[in-house]
Design goal:
alpha+beta; Rossmann fold; Jelly Rolls; 10-stranded mixed sheet; 7-stranded antiparallel sheet; 15 helices; about 25% helix; about 30% strand
């Protein structure tokens, strides 16, 4: 199938995966050992997991009858005997690996007493149908998979959980909202508002959509799905795309989740490049039932990836504890550990908080001043020009997903801030801090600017800059205006992505504004100038949440 998406592609390899650390051959060998019992080809740890699961449960590859008759590839872990048990359904992530992605973790759940069914979502290799992106057929598939699991366990079910990573996490949340049988959810690297994920502050996430297309190179996308992705890449039919996304957004089903007080555990990466954290936090904030969010260093699905290989992983440990408590009734203390657990950049310290609001103790306001300073006092009347059409060394990351693994390994990208051309970017720096600056929460930026056309966009980056000029990114966000007339003032007030970051004493915070980043769609006229300023009635400023 050839489409506008193909011609707009960044040229990423068709073999691109959102799970680069996972080895398809190793997962297939694990599944084969589950079937045969022959663990001679596995390492000791994986062999022990196979033996533990097989000692209590029967494993089989199966086909699940989904909606509209589509057959879905699946794996079933079923305990013998008539004892009622909790069950877990696991819709697969956005990957050609399908349900094999969960093979190790599903086996661990089985060894802990659960009956488990993991299935490959429709349209991906091994399953029939077409990729609908959490559409009505996908949600019906989730309930059909649950029907199948209940039938195969002779109805001996106590409570029901849905667990998904990435694509499977959005499906899991919506199934839980629509199917009253579901008692708890684990949603890893998930989305809350898909429209906001595709159009953050009205800015198209083109590189994220390209990554999704490349990662689904062997999948069968429905014509509508292909058309929607093309819309984002070619900047067409925005309203149509947002309507499509609303149906596929867990945020649209908050009322149903709250009516039943469904417990939901979220896990997310601070530098998520597919589903930015703020739109997931929107979902988290709206839920009134038991909830918890784990924030980690890295990018999409990276923090939990090692657990999919069977290695010790605190995110999967929390997932097990969440289901043990809410499905088995185990008093393991997770309900008293607070709603938020943050991994602090770059110390990797874990910081629990009772609520999201308790992360932020106070807000410090810094004003954008002439001469490139971030000042404690309002400064107005100045102008700063940003030339469009030219990229700078200030970028979101070197690549979608992959850059996050370097962060997890303790090698975050070092940005040479002295190389940022001040003729194409506007830069403001704070004074060096006398002590560690503990950023906790969601920074907010207010700017006034003028553009020569009714469509304009820019990206705001916040960096932690050492005395030698090297920097690490703290957070960022894009902004696009599609309605203001040429030359009229645009009031841009928006959140940067949430963060938990310790800026060392002696370092500066650096705010950079430029008009182009390969991660985002560009709405500017080429070689035009965006003119930023600060008005008396509302000076341009940056609000920093401090812990």
């Amino acid at each position: 199938m050839t489409s506008a998406a193909d011609s707009a592609s960044s040229g990423a390899s068709a073999d691109f995966s959102l799970y680069p650390e996972l080895d398809a051959s190793a997962l297939a060998a694990f599944v084969t050992a589950l079937e045969s019992g022959d663990v001679s080809g596995l390492g000791p740890a994986r062999a022990a997991e196979v033996e533990a699961a097989r000692s209590v449960a029967l494993f089989s590859r199966i086909k699940v009858g989904g909606a509209d008759g589509a057959l879905l590839d699946a794996g079933l872990w079923r305990h013998t005997g008539s004892q009622p048990r909790p069950v877990i359904v696991m819709p697969s992530p956005w990957t050609n690996l399908g349900w094999h992605t969960y093979a190790v973790q599903a086996s661990i759940f089985a060894a802990r007493g659960y009956n488990v069914l993991a299935y490959t979502t429709r349209g991906f290799p091994g399953s029939e149908g077409e990729v609908e992106v959490a559409g009505a057929l996908d949600i019906a598939d989730g309930s059909r998979a649950l029907d199948h699991l209940i039938e195969r366990t002779a109805g001996q079910v106590t409570k029901i959980g849905f667990l998904g990573d990435s694509y499977g996490s959005g499906i899991s949340q919506i199934v839980a909202a629509r199917d009253s049988r579901v008692d708890a959810v684990v949603a890893l690297s998930t989305w809350g508002d898909l429209g906001e994920a595709f159009y953050e502050n009205s800015t198209r996430h083109v590189e994220a959509v390209r990554a999704l297309l490349n990662a689904a190179s062997k999948a069968r996308l429905s014509p509508q799905t292909q058309s929607i992705f093309d819309n984002v890449l070619t900047n067409q039919n925005i309203e149509e795309t947002l309507i499509w996304a609303e149906e596929r957004s867990p945020f649209s089903y908050v009322r149903e989740l709250n009516d039943r007080q469904v417990p939901v555990l979220f896990a997310h990466a601070w530098h998520e490049t597919l589903f930015p954290s703020n739109q997931t936090l929107k979902q988290f904030h709206a839920l009134t039932g038991p909830k918890r969010v784990l924030f980690s260093i890295g990018d999409h699905s990276g923090p939990e990836a090692s657990g999919m290989l069977g290695l010790p992983n605190r995110i999967w440990t929390n997932a097990h504890r969440w289901f043990d408590h809410h499905l088995k009734g185990v008093e393991n203390g997770i309900d008293g550990e607070g709603q938020v657990l943050s991994e602090i950049m770059w110390s990797q310290a874990l910081e629990p908080r009772p609520t999201w609001e308790s992360l932020t103790g106070r807000v410090r306001r810094l004003f954008l001043a002439p001469g490139g300073e971030l000042d404690e006092k309002p400064q107005t009347g100045w102008t700063a020009g940003v030339l469009t059409g030219t990229d700078t060394p200030a970028t979101v990351a070197d690549s979608v997903v992959l850059a996050g693994f370097a962060e997890i390994a303790g090698r975050p990208k070092a940005y040479p801030t002295d190389d940022i051309d001040r003729t194409v970017a506007a830069v403001w720096a704070s004074a060096p801090s006398d002590e560690v600056t503990r950023l906790r929460g969601t920074p907010r930026l207010h700017l006034t600017y003028q553009a020569p056309s009714p469509r304009s966009s820019f990206i705001a980056y916040l960096f932690d800059t050492a005395p030698d000029g090297t920097a690490h990114i703290v957070t960022h966000a894009p902004f696009t205006d599609l309605v203001t007339g040429p030359g009229e003032p645009v009031s841009a007030e928006f959140d940067l992505q949430a963060t938990a970051y310790d800026v060392p004493a002696g370092n500066r915070l650096l705010l950079v504004i430029d008009a182009r980043d390969p991660f985002y769609g560009d709405s500017n006229l080429p070689r035009a100038t965006l003119t930023f300023t600060s008005l008396e009635e509302k000076p341009s400023h940056l609000d920093l949440p401090l812990g």
